[in-house]
Every structure is written in structure tokens, then in C-alpha cells.
Amino acid sequence: MEKYDITLVLGSKNRKRLLKATIESIRNNGFSGQIEIIVIDGGSNDGSCDWLAKQKDVFTIIQPNFKKKDEQGVSFLAHSWGNFMNIAFKSAKSPWIVMVSDDLILAKGALQKGYDLLVDKVNKGEKIGGGAFYFREYPRHDFYRVGLLPKGYININHGFYNKEALEDVNYIEENEFNFYCADGDLIMRLNDKGWKTIPLEDSFANHLVHKPVFKKEKLSASTMRDIEVFNSKYPYPCEINEIKKNSDISIETMPFWKSGFSNCIFGILLKIYDQYRKR
Prior knowledge:
The protein is an alpha/beta fold and 279 residues long. The chain has nine helices and twelve strands. It has a single domain (6-277), classed as Spore Coat Polysaccharide Biosynthesis Protein SpsA, Chain A. The protein has helices spanning 16-27, 48-53, 81-91, 110-123, 163-168, 182-192, 221-233, 254-259, 261-277, and strands spanning 6-12, 35-41, 58-62, 67-69, 75-77, 96-99, 104-106, 128-138, 144-147, 159-162, 196-208, 242-245.
């Protein structure tokens, strides 16, 4: 069996052009070790699966994941985010799993810098559960950030997980959360069991800003339910919810404009709105 140093895991559905850009940023990131790439696709019909089938360096898992409605009429994913992503996590053949979204572009060297920092800390005897990339919502924000959870734990929106730590906490919770907060729950359980999560100080990424929601109810009933479960499990104050950092690092943005033009336009409008609100 081939050995890998890191495994990149992406969940995706119907985002072929953005997915291609993300995978290219992984391939061209400059990592010196062996990389495994796993994409778990939720049943794309935009040509993603056909494209993935031609990628010799990508292990593709297809697990159709569609929305259903429960007896209260609440829409939810047939396979929870935890159930869906655990398929890929458990398939990884390396000691470090790097979770990235399919609308993320990594700064050159982000993987190597993150890996070197984590391995160095583990070799010094630290019990490290993972490390978070600093990321920004492009083009809305100029600053990069990592999120903070109750008890001041570092959240990992995008970044490294120690597979030994994941095994120790039995991976992502599959039943309590349908989608939202499942990653935060994983971080809480890791840290509570002694597996520290840290910010990767020199690893950066651009995340394509989401389009704004114009509905009166900004959050779905399913999301609200997930938030309520998280807050009941972890009823601790969270005085600061993020750590911000400025950097002049250059990260390619053209793929976002080519594949997510409307998102970019909305991002610029949101940036103007943010500046207006600060006046």
C-alpha cells in the first residue's frame, strides 16, 4: 500500500469549475511529500463526476446526498455532513488529513508550512489535534481569520486534522447535527480530550464569499436546530469569535472571477456596505 504524508479531503456537489481550481491549487502548492487527494461527491450532474473520473491522482467517492423533509416539513440532508465527510476521512491513508472546501484557493506553500509546524510540535511531545488555515472571504475581506469556539478553542474551517486524534474521538458526530456546527462539535470534543487545535500562523487561503441571503429568515430551520443542539452541549461564553491577521501574501484570485463571477460582484458590494456601516 502506498504511503502518504497528507490526505486532502474535499466534499463537493455541482461545483465543477470551482472544484477544478481548488484541486489545481493543491497540486501546485509546492508540498515536498506524498499527497493523497480524496473527493467525496454528493451526486453531481454538472460534469464533475466525469471530470473526476479522468484525474489519476484523485480518489473519487460518489455518495449521492440529496435533501429530504421530515414530519415537520423541515428540509435536511439525507446523509448528515458528519456521515458524508467521515466516509472520506476514514478512507485516508495518511497521518494528517487536510480538509478544504471546494471553493478555496490555497496560498503557495500553505500545506508545507502547516505540515512542518504540526510535525515539529508533535515531535516535541505536544498533543496536537489539528491546525487551522487563516482564510479570508474573497473579495469582501482584506483580513484573514481563524474562528474561535467556546473555551477559546481554535476552530478549523479549513486545515489539518491529526488522524490519530480523529480516531480517538470517533470522528465527526453523525447523528446530533445535520450540517451546521458539526465541525465545531468535533473541535470541542478534540480539545476536551486533550487534542489541542492551533492556528497555522504562516498558512493562508482565499475562500469565495457566499452570496447574501435576502429571505426574511436568514437561517434555515435545520440550521437553527443544529445551533440549538450545539449551544445546549456547550453552554460556555465566547467573548471573542475570531482572531484576525493582516498579510500581503499573494493568492491567485482569477479562478474565482471565472467560476464565481456573481459571488465576486456580491463580495465587492458587501465590502462597500461594510465600509459604509463603519462610518
